[in-house]
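Q: Structure for this?
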Amino acid sequence: MSIAHHRRKQPERVRQQLLEVAARLSLEQGAAGVTLDAVSQAAGVSKGGLLHHFPNKMALLEGLFDDLTGKLERTIAEEMRKDAVAHGRFTRAYLSCVFALQGEADAQGWQVLTIALLSEPQLRERWRQWVADRADEYVGTDSSAGCLLVRLAADGLWLADILRSHEIDPATRQMMRAQLIDLSQQ
Amino acid sequence: MSIAHHRRKQPERVRQQLLEVAARLSLEQGAAGVTLDAVSQAAGVSKGGLLHHFPNKMALLEGLFDDLTGKLERTIAEEMRKDAVAHGRFTRAYLSCVFALQGEADAQGWQVLTIALLSEPQLRERWRQWVADRADEYVGTDSSAGCLLVRLAADGLWLADILRSHEIDPATRQMMRAQLIDLSQQ
DNA sequence: CTTGACAAACCGTCCAGACGGTATCTTAAT
DNA sequence: ATTAAGATACCGTCTGGACGGTTTGTCAAG
């Protein structure tokens, strides 16, 4: 019998804790490290407790997905408020998020998700849907070929950060960013 | 006792068959579908037979990787021979490969690999090394920020094709390609 | 008769999820 | 204010199956 059983119940907090741990574990040990046993144990909860919050493993991953896309959406909204130019506004906000992600704590969570995303057809579909929804939402301002190209480049940079496949020095990074912002405006 | 045991032995052919099947399976059922049992069975070979050719699962995945990067290298070399302009020559060849990949049979193999790549640190490192080697090889012609940006955009497009996250009509595709080729030259 | 190319059965481990409980909280009638 | 009656939030164990890898056996070719 663990402490969690006795302490004041805070289901929302436990839920959050489980998501955080799942993200951390997949960073440290790869996607294979995200097992129900490992997550529950590292979160100080029994396996049964984990399965109470998330009825199966996919639900846990989807929870992670929703959590992170939620954060992304808020960050994008915030970024868009600062941008006076309508055309390409969403694209620039998206770009900012990718550039800001590097080195941040949240980036870890995203790395996890990217990997899980590609592996699991169900999550792949969820991401597809998210992109489609944004495309619809900003069809008036961000549907040009130029904007699309910028977003693809941002995804490529994101992938490069995850794979660590390119070593890009900060100066080059900034140059590219400026060029991409430029492309989003024309 | 299966037929394979009796037919004329063609180890190289069996090896190739195993690689093809592994690629197909991961496309149809995701990375999780690539199990030793499934691959060997679908290739009409026993599990022992598979493990004769590839001593363990990672060796199978590495075999797949080498097979596909080999093809990529040959295609790039071919494409580079057609290009008279030195600056950005490799980048444009890389770009051509990504654009050509769409809808092709080989694309399936690459999709597999991308997923496996992200999941397995060992393969991630292998890809990192490949990129680093190319960067060294073409440092004189393709190391500008513009070329890097083009390659990142190509990777983004590649990712989009895998995830099917963006629906890009052929006309837009061609526009983007032209723009990227342009960027690689300046 | 040795060796390469398989087959087939088997092993140990790991893992998702089920299940049957117990403790704590909420609600509402008394 | 009490308290009975659920509802919610967990715990701990078990199981069935999958999976990577091993071992032993078989057969054909050189």
